[in-house]
C-alpha cells in the first residue's frame, strides 16, 4: 500500500503502514489530535468534520478535538482498527469519497515543521519496569557481585516500581541536573550538591487503553487488548542520588527530576508485522503470566539507538544499539502483572519497560553499564572526547524503527533532551 | 468564637475553629466544594453566589463550583486565610452582611447525612514517606535484626517512594483482598493466591497547594507555605506480596490495590494552634532540611486511633492509639526533600507520612508491628476474637482530632474501609 495524498520518502519513520497518534498545535489553534504521515500531520478533527469516520458508531468525533488522547485511548482495539483502515484508504485511494470532496488536501494537513508537539495524554500514573535480563544482571553484578546479580524474584515476575507522572516531558524539553544528597565516602556523612553521575536509560513506554476497574484484574489476553501503543522513553537517572536513597523503598529523587518520551505513539496495529518470539522464560512463569498454547509471539523487533551530542554542538555519536526484542518480560506480561492484585489501570497511564540492554557491550542501554559504573571512559566516535556519565549541555537522542520487508519503515521519530547545568541552590 | 448559624456539639470534629474542605454531592447536583460545620456542609458555591467572597480579588468564585479542589488548592495561603476569616465571620456573626440577606440559612446548608463525599482532588501523583523512626525501627528489626534496623540514610533524609494515584479512594469504599505472588517457603518456588498477611498502616496525608515548576526546588519555608491541609490515610499493605517483590525497587503490588483517605481536608490554618516541637533530629539534617533559628515548631499534636470491627459486625475494638507528634520528619521536610532535585509538585498531589508509630506497643500503627510479624495474637477488646492480620470483611476505621484548650475539637472525621474477600481469579 502506498500513500498517494502526499509523498513519503522510503527513509521516513511515518509511512502509511505506521500512522502514529500525537497531540500537536499549529496555526494559533490549541492542542488537538494528529496522525503523522511522512513530513505531515493529519488534522484528525478536520477529517472527522468532513465525515471520514461517520460510520464508526462507537466513535464520538469530538475525541479528536481534545488536547489529549485519553478518551481515544479508552475506546479500545475495534475502534482503533476501524480508524486505521479508514485512514489508510483515505491516504492510498485517490477515489476515497471524502478525499474527492475536499477542496484541497492542505485543509487536512499541517507541515510537521510548523507544529509544536505536546504530551500525548494526561498521564494519570507512570510505572517503570526492570524487564531486561541483561540490564538487571549488569547492574546487579556492579552492586552485589556476579553470584547475586539477579534477585530471586526476578525470573518469576516483572519487577517494577511506581514513577513520577508530573515530570514526564515531551521530547525537546531540557532537563536540569538535579541537586541532591549523595554519599561519595561511605565513612563520611552525605554531602549535598549537583549529581555527578548523571545517566540516561534507553527504554520504551506503552500507553494503556481501556484498562480495568479497581479490584478487577486483567488476564494476559485482556492486557494485550488494552495496550494502545508505544513510544521511546529516556528514564534520566542520577546514579549517586539513587544509590544513597534507594534502600529499602526504591528509587525516588534519583529518577523523578525528569522522564522524556517521544511525541508520536506508534500503535500496536502498526507493530503487528514485527512480532518476534520473546527470549525463553525459564522457569516457566505462573499461569497468570503464561500464554495460552498457540498465542502469537509477544516480542517486537524494534531497532533502537542512542546518540550523544557533546555539549549540545557538533556531531551525534553512537552510544548504544539495542532492540526491544531482547526484553525478557513482554509488554502484556508487564501490564497483566501490574493489574493482577486489582490495581486499576486508566486510559493514558504510561508504563516504561526499564532499560533495554542486549547481550553485547555495544547494546548496553545506559552509561552506568557502558562505563561499568564509571570505571572506563567511553570514546565518542572519532572525536577526542570521552564520557563516563553525561556532562552539562550534552544532548541525548534516542531513535527507533521497525524495518518492513517492503522497505517501508514503522518508526518512532526522536526522544531528545539536553541536560542543563544544576541550578545554584539558594534555599532559605 | 462560637458558631451561631447552626448548633455544633462540643464533641463534634467540625467546630468553627476547623472548617475543613471537601467535595460532596447532594440534591441531585454534581460534585462541588463544601466546608464542614457541625453536622452540616456549607455550600461554597451558593455562598460565593451570594457575594460572600466578592472582596477577595485573587479568588474566582468559579473554583467552588468545580468537582475537585485542585484549583482552590493552587491559590495559596493568603487566599486560604482570607476565605477562612470570611467563613468564620459568616458563621459567628449574626449581623454578617451576607447572612442577613439570605432568605433562609438552609439555602447554603446541606445536612451531612444527605450528602455523598468524593475524593477532594484529582490526585496527579501520590507519594508515600517512611517518616516515623519507631515504625522504621520496628520493621527494620523484624527484617534485618536489631543492629541493622535503621538504614544508614534514614536519619539524613525522609525516605519515600512513589505510590499509585489511581487506587486512592475515599473513606467508605470497600477494598478487595489482592491476589498475588508470595513465597511462604524460601526453598520452594513462589505461589499465587490471595494475600494472607493483609495489613493497615495508620498514616496521615497532606495535599500540596501551589507547588513548583519542574527544575525549581522549594525551600523549607516555601514548602511549608505550599501545604494546603491534611487527611487521615490508610495505606493498605499485603505484607507477603511486598516481602517477595520489593527488592531492589521497592513496594509495588503489595501497596497499589488501594489507599483510603478521609474526605475532609483539615487546613494548616486550623492546625496552627496545635504545633508542637518535632522529635530531636540527630544528626542535624543538611541545610536544605534545617529550619532557620526561631522558626515555629513543625510537629503537630494530632491524636489518632485505629479500630477494627470483626467481620463487619458488632463493636469496634481499639488497635492503635498514636499521635502525629511522634513523626521524626515533619511535613515540610518531606515536601522540601521531594522537590529539592527539581521534581515538580502540582496542586492536589498527595503525600502520605508513612506509618505513625509511637514509642509504646499500644501506639504501633500496623498489625505487622502489633503482632510482631504475626508471631503473637492481638486480643480484640473483651471479645473472644483475636487477629494477627486483617480477615475478610473486617472493617478498619481511623479517626483523629486535636483537642483545643477551649474544649473545641479540630477533628478529621473517619477514614474507614471494609476488606472484601479476594476475587476468584479466572484469567484466561
From TrEMBL, chains A, B:
* Ligand binding (substrate): 130, 144, 242, 246, 355
The residues the record assigns to binding Ca(2+) are 128, 201, 203, 235
The answer to whether keyword Lyase applies is no
| InterPro entries the record matches | Fumarylacetoacetase, Fumarylacetoacetase-like_C, Fumarylacetoacetase_C_sf, Fumarylacetoacetase_N, Fumarylacetoacetase_N_sf
Which leading EC class covers this enzyme? hydrolase
Q: Which cofactor does it need?
A: Mg(2+); Ca(2+)
The coiled-coil regions, if any, are none
Swiss-Prot/TrEMBL keywords: Calcium, Hydrolase, Magnesium, Metal-binding, Phenylalanine catabolism, Tyrosine catabolism
Give the Fumarylacetoacetase N-terminal domain ranges: 17-120
**Similarity annotation:** Belongs to the FAH family.
Could you tell me what this protein is called?
Fumarylacetoacetase
Q: Which organism is it from?
A: Coemansia spiralis
Identify the taxonomic lineage of the organism of origin.
Answer: Eukaryota, Fungi, Fungi incertae sedis, Zoopagomycota, Kickxellomycotina
Amino acid at each position: 500500500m502506498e500513500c498517494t495524498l502526499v509523498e513519503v520518502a522510503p527513509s521516513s519513520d511515518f509511512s502509511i503502514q505506521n500512522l502514529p497518534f500525537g497531540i500537536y498545535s499549529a496555526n494559533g489553534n490549541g492542542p488537538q489530535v494528529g496522525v503523522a504521515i511522512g513530513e505531515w500531520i493529519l488534522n484528525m478533527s478536520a477529517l472527522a468534520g468532513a465525515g471520514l469516520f461517520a460510520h464508526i458508531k462507537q466513535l464520538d468525533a469530538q475525541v479528536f478535538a481534545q488536547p489529549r488522547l485519553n478518551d481515544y485511548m479508552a475506546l479500545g482495539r475495534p475502534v482503533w482498527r476501524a480508524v486505521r483502515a479508514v485512514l489508510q484508504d483515505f491516504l492510498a485511494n485517490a477515489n476515497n469519497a471524502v478525499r474527492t470532496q475536499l477542496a484541497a488536501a492542505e485543509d487536512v494537513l499541517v507541515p510537521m515543521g510548523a507544529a509544536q508537539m505536546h504530551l500525548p495524554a494526561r498521564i494519570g500514573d507512570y510505572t517503570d519496569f526492570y524487564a531486561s535480563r541483561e540490564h538487571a544482571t549488569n547492574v546487579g553484578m556492579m552492586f552485589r557481585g556476579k553470584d547475586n546479580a539477579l534477585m530471586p524474584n526476578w525470573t518469576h515476575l516483572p519487577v517494577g516500581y511506581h514513577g513520577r507522572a508530573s515530570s514526564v516531558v515531551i521530547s525537546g524539553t531540557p532537563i536540569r541536573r538535579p541537586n541532591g544528597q549523595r554519599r561519595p565516602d561511605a565513612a563520611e556523612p552525605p554531602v549535598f550538591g549537583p549529581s555527578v553521575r548523571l545517566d540516561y536509560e534507553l527504554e520504551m513506554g506503552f500507553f494503556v487503553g481501556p484498562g480495568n476497574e479497581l479490584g478487577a484484574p486483567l488476564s494476559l489476553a485482556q492486557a494485550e487488548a488494552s495496550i494502545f501503543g508505544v513510544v521511546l522513553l529516556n528514564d534520566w537517572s542520577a546514579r549517586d542520588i539513587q544509590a544513597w536513597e534507594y534502600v529499602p523503598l526504591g528509587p525516588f529523587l534519583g529518577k523523578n527530576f525528569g522522564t522524556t518520551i517521544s511525541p508520536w505513539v506508534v500503535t500496536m496495529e502498526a507493530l503487528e508485522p514485527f512480532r518476534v518470539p520473546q527470549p525463553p522464560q525459564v522457569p516457566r512463569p505462573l499461569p497468570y503470566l503464561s500464554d495460552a498454547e498457540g498465542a502469537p509471539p509477544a516480542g517486537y523487533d524494534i531497532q533502537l539507538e542512542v546518540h550523544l551530542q557533546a555539549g549540545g554542538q557538533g556531531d551525534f555519536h553512537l552510544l548504544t544499539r539495542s532492540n526491544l526484542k531482547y526484553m525478557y518480560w513482554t509488554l502484556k506480561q508487564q501490564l497483566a502483572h501490574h493489574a493482577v492484585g486489582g490495581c486499576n489501570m486508566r486510559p493514558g497511564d504510561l508504563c516504561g519497560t526499564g532499560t533495554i540492554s542486549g547481550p553485547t557491550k555495544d547494546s548496553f542501554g545506559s552509561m552506568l553499564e557502558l562505563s561499568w559504573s564509571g570505571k572506563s571512559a567511553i570514546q565518542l566516535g572519532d572525536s577526542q572526547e570521552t564520557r563516563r556519565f553525561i556532562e552539562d549541555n550534552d544532548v541525548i537522542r534516542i531513535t527507533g524503527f521497525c524495518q518492513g520487508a517492503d522497505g517501508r519503515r514503522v518508526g518512532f521519530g526522536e526522544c531528545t533532551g539536553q541536560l542543563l547545568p544544576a541550578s545554584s541552590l539558594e534555599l532559605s
